[in-house]
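Supplementary Note 3. Input sequence used for the single-chain structure prediction.
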Amino acid sequence: MQRGSTIGAFLLLVTAAIWGLAFVAQRAGMEHVGPFTFNAIRFALGAVTLLPLLLLTRHRRLRAVSAGTIRFGLGTGVVLFAGASLQQAGIVFTTAGNAGFITGLYLVMVPLLGIFRRQRVGAVRWVAVGLATYGMYLLSVTPGTAVNPGDLLVLASAFFFAVHVQLIDHAAKRLDALLLSVVQYAVVAAGSALVAVLSETLTRAALSAAAPAILYGGIGSISIAYTLQVYGQRNVEPSHAAIILSLEGAFAVLGGWLVLSEVLSARALAGCFLMLSAMLLSQLWPQRHGGPVATHARLPQPATGGGVPAEIAD
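The predicted structure, written as discrete structure tokens, is reproduced below.
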């Protein structure tokens, strides 16, 4: 496995861990504030905490990359806002287990969407996707659950998260990652704040009670994790990235066990094992057979300028 790909996979694994453990914080925060208030503050916090780093480390390059990055960040911000909002709204009407499983379906949607970018996913990778999907089912869904409107909202959010993964892959290699992160977080914060003002009530006491969860959600889940996703995907193709990020569910269960003293059932352990197996199969199989993890073919440059790397799996 190439060094850049290994580092990228590790960064995505850390991202999945932070996102999974954020379910504990989010569950606590939602007891005090509404979903759009929670999203508005945590995404705003994510943008604000990254802004000084952006100004200190990238100020000499901002003029060269700002126009294209800002335009692209506005688009990815809208997509991320749609995914985060639909997921939060859906959780109100469905169980956390259903939401976790259905959200994870984005890992199946990512390679399907990649077909439109001339990406090809090999048979072994599809086996890995199948293992990860079934593992997430065992991990998150108990027998007898039924589809309800909340499930459909979360399913729609999974589609937008899959689009976001492909968009980040499209831009990560040629745009300023920090500036892109700040712009898209600001878009999500602004959209969430607008909906929160129109539909939710916030008190000082509620905000104080939710502050620890919001801090983790803003600094950990947003500032650190989404930025690690951008850097990690520079050398990891979307189908690989989706499988690694699907381990978010496993880390959520682990966090519940460690922090909330929740018990891991045999069914949940089996799901964790299948998801880990899928990740290892996806990452190690091409190397075992002596081929590269991915080959890169340059597509024709779009009218907006800049090449679009198409990562074609073996």
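Residues 3-292 form one domain. Residues 106 and 293 are 22 Å apart (CA to CA).
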